[in-house]
Write a structure and sequence with these properties.
Elements: E1 7-10, H1 14-26, E2 30-36, H2 43-47, E3 50-55, H3 66-76, E4 80-82, H4 92-100, E5 104-105, H5 110-116, H6 119-129, E6 136-137, H7 144-154, E7 158-162, E8 171-174, H8 180-195, E9 200-204, E10 210-218, E11 224-236, E12 239-245, H9 252-267, E13 273-281, E14 287-293, H10 300-307, H11 311-319, E15 336-343, E16 345-346, E17 352-353, E18 356-357, E19 360-362, E20 368-371, E21 378-379, E22 386-394, H12 397-410, E23 412-414, H13 420-428, H14 430-433, H15 455-477, E24 494-500, E25 503-511, E26 515-520, E27 523-533, E28 536-541, E29 544-553, E30 556-561, E31 564-569, H16 571-574, E32 586-588, E33 593-598, E34 605-606, E35 611-617, E36 620-625, E37 630-634, E38 642-643, E39 648-654
Parallel strand pairs: 1-2, 1-4, 2-3, 4-5
Antiparallel strand pairs: 6-9, 7-8, 7-9, 10-11, 10-13, 11-12, 12-15, 13-14, 15-22, 16-17, 18-21, 19-23, 20-22, 24-25, 25-26, 26-27, 27-28, 28-29, 29-30, 30-31, 32-39, 33-35, 33-38, 34-37, 35-36, 37-39
Helix pairs in contact: 4-5, 12-13
């Protein structure tokens, strides 16, 4: 029987820490947050009753440092620790240390974490329990030759995976023998950096499959039930993007079969608390065990929305030693729920993580948004780029889709680039709407491209900057705002210059009775009914009425419309132009990160597309390739060095024909 507790330390950050703290406070627990020095003013740090700063920004010196977290628990007199997801949530040694310190670990036993956290041992256990598994290799021999033989036996394509951890890290698909050595090396390096273990397993790739997972729950009294399935097929590089419950591909008979297999998997390790058993569902409706996540999942809200249960509350009750208080027959799925993950990343730049100050965060009204950011905060390069989850529920799947689309349109994140536009496109795509998404749907589609502003957008931007600039002057000198653009001769036309898709766009703005008239490269665009209130506004641009959110920072305008997010700079104010001193042969860091490998030497000849280095940022490894063929003339990049965004890594003197 677990000991009773009244105070809870949440050993995490971001949206999941906020999520856990809210439920814990609602249930009367005293809550304690931990924060790195970079997070001391983050929302989760301010939401808890107490916050302990545990170390510098790097996770190894803060959120992954078990000793510092246990010290914080002792200092704050916390009696239990909730690990959230990621970080130490599936670290069996940490769970043991928590229990050895006389605290309650809100999660399964260390033994269950240890077994299910090792994909190789877990798969062997599932085979013994009769749970369907994918053919492959999960042995202890880790030399390259053994994996080569295993791949030949399984037949290409195969999937190389980290034996520890998850979240798409340390995972590579291999389609032919020539690709296997590099895939093993990259996956092993990524796994070591992310999970502290480079052990790998290999499985036959089940292509064109769906990713369907089952939420299970157990208590200390031997009760284990499932709470239905979630469909997480829309993934990018094995990282989930959109999840829903229930799955559009699962009928009641299949649901019972999946649920039975998931419960048997949990029973095999005497599971306690919240867990998720993940399966691949093939087109022939056969399903195969992937892994078990011994923690709360990122996508747990969709299960909450269709069952009416608070999974964090259930976790805390079970951790107190209480019976689950729920039978399988009492679980009812009502309606449909879909979650979209909002990432600080640039889809048009290969989904590179984005960082920087958050000038405006405005979650959509109505519905549910779980977030870990706020206006005035900052997204740093030290942590995962997931910043919020937008969650919609409807009586039917079609209704949930409509609501999610509306919520995404009304969500505004200004500052770092986000994947909001990409999510809107996914939700509106026919493949998703018809319930036919597969795990390869996103990766097999054409890469996203940046949406360039059209004439009306430039007109709206110029009008907003014109109006806000005058209002600042009017407030300073106490002038009536209706004098904007007035002169004794003729209306003043304020000039604006923006960078367009094919060169500079010249705009001239003059006031009109209900807004502005904007000349965009010689064509007049009326911007009427222009209403600005705080960081929000509406306007009639041409024939369209547009809702928008905006922030101005000097010459920069950050603009969010229902269909796009933009940053536009008025070059009249800056009088600056881009200067690419390094030319086409300059290879720069596309983000802040750690150089983990350098594959070339100064003076070496390289070919276009050749691998030059790898950069680790936000727990992912990014390969840096040569943009041109030529000779390396400068090599500032060094293994183990931290580099900033835009910093020169390799300088190549291009061949003359390039």
């Amino acid at each position: 029987m677990a000991e009773r507790f009244t105070s809870l330390l949440v050993a995490n950050r971001g949206e999941i820490a906020c999520r856990v703290i809210r439920t814990a406070k609602a249930l009367g627990y005293r809550t304690v947050a931990v924060a790195s020095e970079a997070d001391r003013d983050a929302p989760h740090a301010k939401l808890a009753d107490q916050c302990i700063v545990i170390g510098p920004a790097p996770v190894g010196q803060s959120y992954l440092d078990a000793e510092r977290i246990l010290k914080a628990a002792k200092e704050s007199r916390a009696e239990a620790i909730h690990p959230g997801y990621g970080f130490l949530s599936e670290n069996a040694d940490f769970a043991r240390e928590v229990e050895d310190a006389g605290l309650v670990f809100v999660g399964p036993s260390p033994e269950a974490i240890d077994l299910m956290g090792d994909k190789a041992r877990a798969k062997r256990a599932m085979i013994a329990a009769g749970v369907p598994c994918i053919p492959g290799y999960e042995g202890e021999e880790q030399d390259e030759e053994r994996f080569v033989r295993a791949a030949e036996e399984a037949g290409y394509p195969v999937m190389v995976k980290a034996a520890a951890g998850g979240g798409g890290r340390g995972m590579r698909i291999v389609r032919n023998p020539d690709e296997l050595p590099a895939a093993l090396q990259t996956a092993r390096s990524e796994a070591e950096n992310a999970f502290g273990s480079g052990d790998l397993i290999l499985e036959k790739a089940v292509e064109n499959a769906r990713h369907v997972e089952v939420q299970v729950f157990g208590d200390a009294h031997g009760t284990i039930i499932h709470l239905g399935e979630r469909d997480c097929s829309l993934q990018r590089r094995h990282q989930k993007v959109i999840e829903e419950a229930p799955s559009p591909a699962v009928d009641e008979a299949l649901r019972q079969a999946l649920g039975k297999a998931a419960v048997e998997a949990a029973r095999a390790v005497s599971y306690r608390g919240a867990g998720t058993v993940e399966f691949l569902l093939a087109d022939d409706r056969q399903f195969y065990f992937l892994e078990m996540n011994t923690r709360l999942q990122v996508e747990h809200p969709v299960t909450e929305e269709v069952t009416g249960l608070d999974l964090v509350a259930l976790q805390l009750n079970v951790a107190q030693g209480e019976p689950l208080g729920l039978t399988q027959e009492e679980v009812r799925l009502r309606g449909h729920s879909i979650e979209a993950r909002l990432y600080a990343e640039d889809p048009a730049a290969g989904f590179l993580p984005a960082t920087g100050p958050v000038h405006l965060w405005r979650p959509a009204p109505g519905g549910r948004t779980d977030a870990g950011i706020e206006t005035g905060g900052e997204i740093t390069p030290h942590y995962d780029p997931l910043v919020a989850k937008v969650i919609a529920r409807g009586d039917t799947r079609d209704e949930a889709i409509r609501k999610l689309n509306r919520m995404l349109e009304e969500t505004a994140l200004l500052g770092p680039v986000s994947n909001r536009r990409f999510l809107i496109d996914l939700v509106g795509d026919k493949v998703f709407r018809t319930g036919e998404a597969r795990t390869n749907t996103i990766d097999s589609a054409p890469p996203p491209v940046a949406i360039t502003p059209d004439r009306d957008t430039f007109a709206l931007a110029a009008a907003i900057q014109f109006r806000t600039a005058f209002e600042e002057v009017a407030e300073k000198f106490r002038l009536p705002k209706d004098l904007a653009g007035w002169s004794s001769a003729e209306p003043i036309a304020a000039p604006f210059l923006y960078e367009g898709p094919e060169g500079t766009i010249a705009c001239a703005v003059r006031s009109s009775e209900d807004g502005c008239i904007v000349d965009v490269d010689g064509e007049e665009v009326p911007v009427g009914q222009l209403r600005l209130a705080g960081n929000e506004g509406t306007a009639e641009v041409g024939d369209n009425r547009i809702r928008f959110a905006f922030v101005t920072r000097g010459p920069d305008l950050f603009l969010s419309t229902p269909s796009n997010d933009l940053q536009l700079t008025n070059k009249v104010a800056t009088r600056k132009s881009a200067n690419d001193a390094g030319g086409v042969g300059a290879v720069t860091a596309v983000m802040h990160g750690l150089v983990t490998s350098v594959f070339v030497e100064d003076g070496e000849r390289v070919e276009k597309g050749q691998r030059l280095a790898t950069l680790e940022a936000m727990k992912m490894q990014h390969e840096i390739a040569a943009p041109v063929s030529g000779v390396v003339t400068s090599l500032p990049a060094r293994e183990g060095a931290q580099v900033g965004s835009g910093e020169l890594l390799v300088q190549i003197e291009p061949d003359t024909e390039e």
